[in-house]
């Protein structure tokens, strides 16, 4: 196998979000997170449940594995038995996420998806995030509207947890004293200075930031030959 691309490191980083979760419902939103969840299921997380987003549980190849009625889906959500990976139009140092609007809520400059299920997701089950273009427009000092709830707004929420934020530059977590964001690993070729420049708030940067782990030869084979032989991952993260 040839060396891994940046997109493949991102798939690995997303897959790692579900490591150790056990039998929970994985709900990835977007191409790279979906490849990550399916890769995790095929390798180190065989107990993961994958859904078609409607009423079925599916195998990594998309064939039907079981039935998941909506009432049961909600029971998993509110009981902390789902781990969702969402996108973010904005995200701040404490993990507050915005997918609703840019600018003042009463007169926004741009209308986005809307709040949707973000508050329920973040308060009731673990929520990670995927950002394909790490920039100051996304990583902001303060989100224009809180949709996904961050650590500074989640007091008393039993199942609130943000395991990781994955971007095209690295992996970030909140393992600091005040639950502010820090880089947990950087993808090959990315520097701490590059991440600081692309982030609109002061990151808690450790003295040493490890590299994102390399995919194994078997993981690369699965990504390239089984999960995404058409190479669609490179449309989201260029090499």
Automatic annotation (TrEMBL):
GO molecular function annotation: transferase activity
Transferase recorded as keyword: yes
Keywords attached to this entry: Transferase
UniProt-listed InterPro entries: CoA_trans_fam_I (IPR004165), NagB/RpiA_transferase-like (IPR037171)
Segments passing through the bilayer: none
Pfam family, any one: CoA_trans
EC class of the enzyme, as a word: transferase
Name of the molecule in the record: CoA-transferase
Signal peptide span: none
Protein family membership: Belongs to the 3-oxoacid CoA-transferase subunit B family.
Organism from which the protein derives: Streptomyces coeruleorubidus
EC annotation from Swiss-Prot or TrEMBL: 2.8.3.-
Keyword rRNA processing: no
């Amino acid at each position: 196998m040839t060396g891994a691309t940046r997109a493949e490191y991102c798939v690995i980083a997303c897959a790692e979000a579900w490591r150790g979760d056990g039998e929970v419902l994985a709900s990835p939103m977007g191409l790279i997170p979906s490849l990550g969840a399916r890769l995790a299921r095929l390798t180190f997380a065989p107990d993961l449940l994958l859904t078609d987003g409607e009423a079925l549980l599916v195998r990594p190849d998309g064939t039907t594995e079981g039935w998941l009625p909506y009432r049961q889906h909600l029971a998993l959500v509110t009981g902390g038995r789902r781990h969702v990976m969402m996108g973010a139009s904005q995200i701040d140092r404490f993990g507050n996420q915005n997918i609703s609007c840019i600018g003042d809520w009463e007169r926004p400059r741009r209308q986005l998806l809307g709040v949707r299920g973000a508050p329920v997701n973040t308060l009731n089950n673990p929520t990670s995030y995927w950002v394909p273009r790490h920039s100051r427009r996304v990583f902001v000092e303060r989100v224009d509207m809180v949709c996904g709830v961050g650590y500074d707004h989640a007091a008393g929420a039993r199942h609130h947890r943000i395991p990781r934020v994955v971007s095209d530059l690295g992996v970030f977590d909140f393992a600091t004293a005040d639950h502010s964001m820090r880089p947990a690993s950087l993808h090959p070729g990315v520097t701490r200075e590059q991440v600081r420049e692309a982030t609109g708030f002061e990151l808690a940067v450790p003295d040493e930031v490890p590299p994102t782990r390399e995919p194994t030869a078997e993981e690369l084979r699965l990504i390239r030959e089984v999960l995404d032989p058409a190479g669609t991952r490179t449309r989201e993260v260029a090499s």
